[in-house]
Amino acid sequence: MRRIKGRIISKGVAQGEALITSEPITFLGGVDPKSGRVVERGHELEGKCVAGKVLVFPKGKGSTVGSYVIYGLRRSGLAPAAIINDEAEEMVATGAIVAKIPMLDSLPNKSAFRNGMRLLVNADEGYVEVLGEE
Amino acid sequence: MHLTRDEERILSGERGEGLRRAMEILVALGDIKGADRFIPVKSAHVSGVSYKTIGDAGLELLREWASSGATVKVPTTSNPSGLDLKSWREFGFPQEFAEKQLAIMRAYRDLGVADSCTCTPYLLENIPREGEHIAWAESNAVVYANSILGARTNRESGISALAAALVGKAPNYGLHLDENRKPTFSVSFGVELEGPWAYSAAGYYIGEEMEGIPIFLGLKPSPEEAKALGSALAVGGVSMFRLADKIEKGVGDLEKIRVGEEEINGAREALNTANGEVDLLCIGCPHCTPREAVEVSKLKPSIETWVFTSRANAAKLGKKRLHENVKLICDTCMVVSPLEEMGIATIGVNSAKAAFYCRNLSGLDVKYAPFGELVK
Questions:
Q1: Residues of A taking part in catalysis
Q2: What is the pTM for the complete model shown?
Q3: Residue A58 in contact with residue A25, Cβ under 8 Å?
Q4: What are the φ and ψ backbone dihedral angles of B258, each rounded to 5 degrees?
Q5: In whole angstroms, how far apart are CA A80 and each of A49, A67, B303, B362?
Q6: Among residues A127, A130, B37, B97, which one has the fewest Cβ atoms lying within 10 Å of its Cβ?
Q7: Minimum-distance CB partner of A72 among B54, B139, B142
């Protein structure tokens, strides 16, 4: 069992399928709150749904309303199950904390993750575990 | 992060659930960002005001917070709402949307937040002094306050800015500290930037390519151009810029980028999705100054033009008559108002930020061009 340690940003434990991008995500305008799909034109994840996924991206960018969008996604059941960032910034960190979405950052080795892998994010203890390759 | 005894009490819930919740968010952010302590802030500015952007979940969150009885400790202004609070019926805003928006305004009022409803509080409503620590959301206002006014704020989220307003303090990290306010790359220009459109195109290109703090060599923007530049930089990863007449000590060693005609045209191509007729011209991202409103009117646009501004700016215009196709609309903007639900499909804008968000957030087709071209 491979465990990769990370820094705890928002506590909680969740698992889901990994959805990975190397591009930052703008939540306001980048993710549709009614469907949970990434709608930013030309984004690597355009058309993909973040609901229930372990969303792995470098960091948030853009509008300061992004944290409300994350909170809104959670209330409608369309939020990612967990979030993994390279470097947490204010928008995504606040959104995850208020929405109680488990979130980690600063993992030394994210390259082990592949799209579709089943990941367990334990943000109470601060690690990610690969549950299956799928 | 070191907490005083008083701050510990707030965190433990002794001063009520609303303040505890605010403190919890700020301590978490402070710990993540390596803050040593809290610092008092002089003012706050919150984003997340329009029903279109925060929805029912946002309204509920604000209501919960307000029902705890917590109120802001420092003067706090608000970002644009989703409609003109006085004339929404005349402009054709949907009734149901209006009811939700007015409920959001009541929740903010209960929290003690002013109904300034502008993204340019730095022009009239809330002008920080040089060196002051503030907690602002709204990315264009963050850039302007840091870069032009010399105040100090991180790019707060709407929620963390409200939390800081309620506590009256912000965690001491990032742009509050001298060492993080130095330029990290320099930008020279192979083209003369003139007018808000050109500044916004340059800003969009730079914000997409780079992050950190640019120093602009030889740039002397007007206030209108500076706000256009800042708003576009902030669509990407920039929260502060510096202006310099000549190369300062140390700047020579920084990474350099150059912005020429090719980059400006690239930004235009990336943001422009419409080439034919537009339904409406939308000017005022960030909110128009009175001078801009008059300039727009002087160009006598042949199609309907909505000039978005703050109520305070509109008051400055007084009874000045604008061209018959130019309508002044307050408290909102083209990005956060529900234009797409009001029979509008294609708009013309001269702002990179508006182009980016109207397309992505509202699904509108956007003609992105200098205002002089849009009116032709």
A1: 63
A2: 0.95
A3: no
A4: -125, 135
A5: 9, 13, 43, 22
A6: B37
A7: B54
Q: Which residues in chain A have Cβ-Cβ distances shorter than 8 Å to B137?
A: 64-65
All residues of chain A having their beta carbon less than 8 Å from the beta carbon of residue B57 are 68, 71-72, 74-76
> What per-residue confidence (pLDDT) applies to B270?
95
Q: What is the 8-class DSSP label of residue B142? A: H
CA distance B96 to chain A (A): 18
**pLDDT higher than 90, residue B253:** no
Quick one: pLDDT at residue A59? 93
CA B73 to chain centre: 22
The answer to whether B54 contacts A68, with C-beta atoms less than 8 Å apart, is: yes
Q: How many CB atoms lie within 10 A of CB B157?
A: 32
Q: How confident is the model at residue A134 (pLDDT cuts 50, 70, 90)?
A: low
Number of residues that make up chain A: 134
| Peptide linkage before B338 cis (omega within 30 of 0) | no
**ipTM for the complex?**
0.91
Question: Which tokens sit at B57?
Answer: 């979940």
Cα dihedral B72, B77, B82, B83 sign = positive
Residue among A75, A74, A29, A34 nearest A55 (CA): A74
Distance, C-alpha B99 to centroid of its chain: 24
* Locus of tokens 């005609």: B261
DSSP-derived secondary structure letter, A31: B
Q: Taking CA atoms, what residue in A is nearest to B335?
A: A29
Q: What is the pLDDT of residue B252?
A: 76
With contacts defined as CB-CB under 8 Å, which chain B residues touch A30?
360
Q: Find the closest chain B residue to A97 by CA distance.
A: B25
d(CA B190, CA B260): 4
The answer to whether the Cβ–Cβ distance between B161 and A64 falls below 8 Å is yes
